[in-house]
Specification:
Bound molecules: zinc ion
Order of helices and strands: HHEEEHHEEEEHHHEE
Number of helices: 7
Distance between the termini: 27 Å
Strand content: 15-25%
Shape: elongated
Length: 203
Amino acid sequence: MLWVLEDMFAKSVGILGRSQQIWSAIILTDPGGYPIRHTRRKERKMKKDKWIKRWKINGSNGNTWTVAIDKDGNYGCSCPIWKFKRKECHHILQVKQNGGSEIKYRDARPGNVGEVTIKGNLVLYPLVPIGGSFSTHLAATIIYDLQRSNVRPEYIKDYKDRMFKGNSFKAINDYILEHGRIIYTEFEKGQGWTNPVFTFHKT
Ligand SMILES: [Zn+2]
């Protein structure tokens, strides 16, 4: 399914010069000034995550496992011993003995930002224009950045499923690592964020 991204990328490079005009046109035709999907339909209700706390545990072999606890005090782990045998593994034991570092996930929502921006416990991300020549690349960048910002996994998955039905996280991340991120660099009053540019993923 990566061809969808590749195709969009080719288009966005080809007409990046024109994208400013297209972008402006999209904004001007939208009465709310927000040329995005989110304002046009209600956010779908998030599936409730049964786990209320998570910890990172470094296993032997260099693996990292996630131990979690639910509201009833039941533990789970991402390792095979718990996953397939539902047995208390030594990662869970370690957490019970105050081991591991707790993972603090952040919530996310669309905001008035040019790129994914961390604001304390909250992560804001830009709105993706419908049909913009760079929309696919922008959405892929947002998904990549939400992961780096420690946003709750179920939120990112929900967002990804809306933006890219068939693409895996790996495909999206590989794409960004190869082609770079795309971010808005200018904010114009009455226009919103403009001037999308490519930037390397490390910045
Ligand atoms: Zn385990």
